[in-house]
Amino acid sequence: MIPVLPTGVVVHGDSLEDQALLQHYPLNSTAREFLILIDGRRSLASIAEQLAERYRQPREVLLRDLSGLCQELYRHSLLNWHETWLQRGTRWLLALRTRRLPTPYTWRSDPPRSKNTLLLLGWLCLEVWRAWLPVLSAGLLVATVTGALLAIFPQLTLAYLALALSLTLSISLHEGGHLLVLRHYCGAGSGFFLRTGPLLRLVRPPLERPAAEIAVNVAGPLLPGCVALLALVWHLFHAWPLDWMVITLFGVHLLQLVLPNPDLNDILRAWHSGRRRREMLDPMAQALLPSVEHERRPLLMSRNSLTETATQQRFTGTFIRSTVAGIFIGAVMALLITLLGFLGILLYGLINAPQDIHLKILSLKIFDFTSQGTSFSFQMHIQGAVIVLGLLTLLAACVFWMLRGVHRLRPRPS
């Protein structure tokens, strides 16, 4: 394993500075010399051997101490581990032998120290492509082989490339919205991304104002959502192929403003903290709060009433969480079913051309699909599509609630 210092981590004298989070960590002489020797090419063993010769210490003891230091730095996102292809292959072979997935390493990526929007979005696109490259490459191979076997090679491959491009651009705009607003409030160089497999997560310093916290969390889903709304307006005037795939992949980010996820949790937490701060800063409310509480508090409250109140609050919280979780899972399943159905109809229409498919529920039109040889046209009716998505969401939510109820009723081993 080769240790690598992120670009936002700098050694200054006897301290280690995290420029993205504005934090400093004290260092002793050995740790300082070790961090200075890290160049991204030498392994941990070779650095330990050089320090052992300099300080005349046993190599094994120094290697053990440096390994513990590296693990501590890696846990605080102050150090990256770089694997060679041989080490990566060996780790995966051992994982296949033990039938356990290997632990993915987290890589810290520091954006450029700039507020330039195009520069930051371009850098984010490269990071998203780097994170999704193995998954997208495997999908491209499957799409190419399937297209060749079904004699629709160019169309299926181009549709998959459009899907991959829309997916990566929507993720880049989502994370770019967070980063751009964060740079507006905290300045250039603040925040970094942790990449674990295909997942990206923004790590940022705490913001003092709740309004800034809300703006940073709202900007992520809002930026790709605006692109989806523009694509929807364009579709109403000029329909174009694969438009609903683009609208769905960009518009699904807006669900994070209404369904439970980390962004919505941070928004609600910031809103509650701002509300508490306003109440504490209001001297009139502070003066009236004890008397109001005294007037509303009953003179005698039995233990049963306390238990009933706690049970009612617990039931209400559980009911709300279960309802929101069911709707969220139902919406995700509805979008997946809709996307798979669209791809299935596309493959069927291209393989068995010419086709003229019109799907409707009673007298409500959902979509029209027409294929002639290698060309096709697809038109979605908004009212029918919304009703179908709503019904699929409700059906998937009911299935989720039923499976959850069966799981809770199952007897547990004592």
Your description of this structure?
This protein is α+β, with helices and mostly antiparallel strands and 414 residues long. It has three domains: 2-105, Orthogonal Bundle (Arc Repressor Mutant, subunit A), CATH 1.10.10.1150; 117-290, no CATH class; 317-414, no CATH class. Helices cover 64% and strands 13% of the residues. The chain has a three-stranded antiparallel sheet with strand order 2-3-4, with helices on one face. A three-stranded antiparallel sheet has the order 6-7-8, with helices on one face.
List keywords for this structure.
3 domains; 11 strands; alpha+beta; 414 residues; 64% helix; three-stranded antiparallel β-sheet; Arc Repressor Mutant, subunit A; globular
